Amino acid sequence: MVDLVNQHKKIENELNSAMAEVMNNTSFIKGPKVAQFEYNLSQFLNVKHVIGCGNGTDAIQIALMALELEPGAEVITPDFTFVATAEVVRLLGFTPVLVDVDLDTFNLSPEAVLKAISPKTKVIIPVHLFGQCADMGAILKIAKDHNLFVIEDTAQATGASWCEGDDRSGMAGTIGHIGTTSFFPSKNLGAAGDGGAIFTNDDDLADKIKSIANHGQGNQYYYKYIGVNSRLDTLQAAVLDVKLQYLTQYNKARYWAAEKYTELLNINPQLITPKIASYSNHIFHQYTLRILNGKRDDLMNYLNEHQIPNKIYYPLPLHLNHPYDVECRYNSNELQNTKQLCKDVLSLPMHSELTIEQIEFICSKINEFLK
Q1: Domain residues for 289?
Q2: Which of 221, 244, 267 is the last residue of a domain?
Q3: Residues 313 and 326 in one domain
Q4: Of 27, 201, 166, which Cα lies nearest the Cα of 19?
Q5: Vertex 136: Cα angle to 167 and 334 (nearest 5)
Q6: In sequence order, which ranges of the chain are alpha helices (DSSP H)?
Q7: Do the Cβ atoms of 36 and 22 come closer than 8 Å?
């Protein structure tokens, strides 16, 4: 699904040099490379504060902790997504409210958010799924009208941007009150292990987030908050700082690959190629098809027989996974898009090293099967 071997070979000398520098000065925890990467990423995203942490799940947890919500608070998040969002909400003693997504973009439906708001609702967590932004204009308006916080989960969309009209725009993760991301190796900006980061333009929130991520410390051994131990490793920061220089190039390569896929598959009436929203660009963390007429699983088996990687993101709505079926609030009757997508979706190989020959072979096999 992702060719990191060939991607890393092209920048092998730069990666080795950056890691050797860390090894030689032994600054393994909170070394200068961490601050350097945080600054460079803040410049890339045009956001005031970037705070590294251990992984993307920690990033969401720390962001929620920084808001100091009352026990029992409700947090609205998509039913069609990776489990991390609902997981940390529940771990902190809050109630995940699972709502439906848009059938075309796979992202959080503003209409569904509006229906789900209750007096206990305090936060909306839109997930910028598969590489494009959720409808942040509508989500921000709902949040403002109901005095809610917005935490963006941009683990799959670092480098994507949102635009609404002539005067409202921003990079994914910098639009709401707090943004979070993951540097899992397969991400568009991926480390050589785990890593994550939190973004904000709010100085007070940034100070609180930095403290919470470091055991709640103010000055050393003096504690201001209940915190956690979640740091971005200096070796990972060194790797990420090298790869950040190539992120725009990587995202363009993914977009080119997506265009080729769509060109070759759009003629097939038995599938639906990815839709790009008018308010976002798309950096294609995943290239996700909808396979119609109940043929998804048969196609998956056919691709497996021909050794073509593929993956279902996601096979089951969160509300049908135990324990989220009892630990969350949701209305099963209003999750029809999510249920349909879980039956239809199939993701194809997507990375910066795809060749036209590979894409043509994959598409030929899909069109061969879906005659």
Answers
A1: 247-369
A2: 244
A3: yes
A4: 27
A5: 150
A6: 4-10, 12-25, 32-45, 56-66, 84-91, 110-116, 136-145, 203-213, 234-244, 247-265, 296-305, 324-327, 336-344, 356-369
A7: no
| Gap between the terminal Cα atoms of the chain | 24
Contact 198, 191 (CB under 8 A): no
DSSP per position, 265-293: HTT-TTEEPPP--TTB-B--S-EEEEE-T
DSSP 292-336: -TT-HHHHHHHHHHTT---B-S-SS-GGGSTTHHHHSB--GGG-H
Which of 244, 275, 292 terminates a domain? The answer is: 244
Residuewise pLDDT in 10s, the chain (371 residues): 999 999 999 999 999 999 999 999 999 999 999 999 999 999 999 999 999 999 999 999 999 999 999 999 999 999 999 999 999 999 999 999 999 999 999 999 999 999 999 999 999 999 999 999 999 999 999 999 999 999 999 999 999 999 987 778 999 999 999 999 999 999 999 999 999 999 999 999 999 999 999 999 999 999 999 999 999 999 999 999 999 999 999 999 999 999 999 999 999 999 999 999 999 999 999 999 999 999 999 999 999 999 999 999 999 999 999 999 999 999 999 999 999 999 999 999 999 999 999 999 999 999 999 98
- What does the block give as tokens for 190? 């991926």
| Residues 116 and 237 placed together within one structural domain of the fold | yes
Task: Give the three-class secondary structure for 74.
Answer: strand
Residue the block writes with tokens 């409202």 = 168
199 Cβ contact list (under 8 Å, min separation 6): 42, 45, 47, 49, 50, 51, 173, 174, 178, 179, 180, 181
Whether residues 17 and 125 share a domain: the answer is yes
Burial classification of residue 102, based on how many CB atoms lie within 10 Å of its CB (0-12 exposed, 13-18 middle, 19 or more buried): buried
